[in-house]
Amino acid sequence: MGMPHAAERWTADQVRALPDDGNRYELVSGELVVTPAPRASHQVAVSELEAWLRRAVSAPGVPVGVARLHVLHSPADISLGEDEVLQPDLFVYATASGRLVRDWSEIDALFLVIEVLSPPTARNDRVVKRVRYQRAGVPEYWVVDLDARIIECWRPGDERPEILAERISWQPEAAAPAAELDLPLFFATVLGEDART
């Protein structure tokens, strides 16, 4: 399930040595977290958000330079300075060179991390990983709840999330225009509904 295996303290090297068996393995604060493959609607949501974010980071007015932003999805091998392996569903990152990442250690900063909830991952995404991303100073961490049709937006220092059901806005860089996402339309698309009804 999506629960930590707390019998022993794991290392990143041990997690990386686990078999490629269809499960997702993460290491957060020394705890091994194993989750099964996500449901189809989860993957549709990740795909839709990834397309939206790619448009946002390459929109006219987004400055191109050393801090050029890129979008990727899991599987990944993200470490925020601790002995860990994080597998965010979707993330926006930058490298010092401004180029696409070739090795996970090249990621200098995460600007946005998104997790789409699945029943086995809800506690881990809302509590364990959220605290880790907040502690690392990731500017925004979104938890997408397909069943409730909301996005929880967390920022460093937040004790409670901003709950969004109508519209979410994200600004890739200070000088760039904000990208807006119509949430009722997004959820209707992901869940295969006719958005006109």
Major beta-sheet overview: 6 strands, mixed
Overall helicity: 10-25%
What is the strand tally?
11
pLDDT < 50 stretches: none
Overall geometric form: globular
What strand line-up does the widest sheet have? 4-5-6-7-8-9
Architecture in CATH?
A: Alpha-Beta Complex
- Which class of secondary structure composition applies to the elements? alpha+beta
Report the CATH topology name. Answer: tt1808, chain A
Question: What is the distance, rounded to the nearest whole angstrom, between the alpha carbons of the first and last residues?
Answer: 36 Å
Q: What's the CATH C level?
A: Alpha Beta
- The rounded Rg comes to 17 Å
Describe, in plain words, how this protein is organized in 3D.
The radius of gyration is 17 Å and the shape is globular. It has a six-stranded mixed beta sheet with strand order 4-5-6-7-8-9, with helices on both faces. By secondary structure, the chain is of the alpha+beta class. It has one domain (4-190): tt1808, chain A, CATH 3.90.1570.10. It has four helices and eleven strands. Helices cover 23% and strands 27% of the residues. The longest helix has 18 residues, at 40-57. The N and C termini lie far apart (36 Å). The protein has helices at residues 12-16, 40-57, 122-135, 183-190; strands at residues 4-5, 24-28, 31-35, 70-73, 90-95, 107-116, 140-145, 150-154, 162-164, 167-170, 179-182.
